[in-house]
């Protein structure tokens, strides 16, 4: 007895989809590491990483605020281990799933913030820091993080074209969805590997008791590469002649690196007031490559030869992106010791980024299928072929202007308890303009002859053609504002144990505008006997302006065990306050004074 399955090697039905008015740049995958300064943040668990800078008393954070902030310890060694977060990064209305070759009509709900809210990176395997005050006036400091993680391959966001076995570029079936027995022989790959090295070197010099200078050189080397490959070949049964072969391979290669130099000075006016200035310049380059090879063949023939079907489809996609840019930034900071038990701190940072964008893309998809059937009651034969060619290249620019400010109030309530609270506000404006010339050619042809015996023979023919010579101009603007209010309480249980609680109230607002204009030099459209040719005109595709707000409150618990005056252990836990009661993330760090 024959076991029936749907003749597709995937579980549900996917239609090939083509978005001809979507620019290649929309598919670029951003990262939190791209064109952002690296610094060692011992309190950088995701909901608190912005407010930790300026709120928490830590020498590594002080170095990032101002390279001239010399450490007080002679030598301090820091090591931490971090668990990954148990929640997805914000990339869409649905989380970005690991890549599955879905066979259902793929209609994703893309988040319009994709161009600014990026894919989060995995936590470092290890973080190491060393503060070394060589003399009363001079210090040299180091920081390093290593990232390494393998995960399943995941789907590209905002593609121009998705291919699917059994469908041509128009979403028409070319493989017979019939019930057949199957014995699969397959092999494949499904992985995405992230590797990164993040480092920092700092040197500071104290000119006199009031004035200190410092400089920091840091860098990032980041790579993410992966492959989703599937090879299937089957010989279904011995009664009929059935053969099916499908080779599907997707690869991605992302590379990024930057160098970042910052310098600053810190001036102490008196025992109560000090003032600092920091300026910096970052320059980096990101390249990404994406390729698809999708080839499938199918042949089926009844044993008596009365019915056959054959199909062939091939899709090749090759895309490349290059982002090269710089970030110029500056910060002023102020600390005022109001009373012996009360202190206020303030900083203001401004950053301006300019990133040059370029990309190129080639998509070629070809399909062919034919067959016939002849029995006592029915006769039919059919033939179809389609082709899509899409070749384009682009250039453009992204500008990002950012203001960040934070006010912090610190007080010591008793000998054992301390309270800190602050207000953090940031406003970022992103503007991107891309110009992408594209040449598109597509055609399809279908012809069939059929007869319900003994009725007359009927014929049907359908043909279409599209030729486009156009330039796409994509403009998007996003404003992102965030307000965060952290409150921290720490309490010394005894001389060995200290506990802390940090609560952070967060509010975020996004406003996203997205518009694409297609300037056609020439467009030819043919549908059977209808022919239309146009020259020198434009079409605009404008998305509705989206405003999105998010509100959230998160909590962090910590415990510090002081083994001796030279060594302590710190544990940070960010719980999930939902119904599952999980731990979203934990950090464990060790500090040793040498």
Report on the architecture of this protein:
The chain has 594 residues and is mainly beta. The protein has helices at residues 49-55, 59-65; strands at 17-18, 75-82, 126-133, 138-151, 161-162, 184-206, 211-235, 241-268, 273-301, 307-339, 342-374, 378-412, 417-452, 458-492, 497-527, 530-542, 546-564, 567-575, 583-593. The strands form 2 sheets. The protein has a 16-stranded antiparallel β-barrel with strand order 2-3-4-6-7-8-9-10-11-12-13-14-15-17-18-19. The longest helix has 7 residues, at 49-55. It is elongated, with a radius of gyration of 31 Å.
What's this model, at a glance?
The chain has helices at 49-55, 59-65, and strands at 17-18, 75-82, 126-133, 138-151, 161-162, 184-206, 211-235, 241-268, 273-301, 307-339, 342-374, 378-412, 417-452, 458-492, 497-527, 530-542, 546-564, 567-575, 583-593.
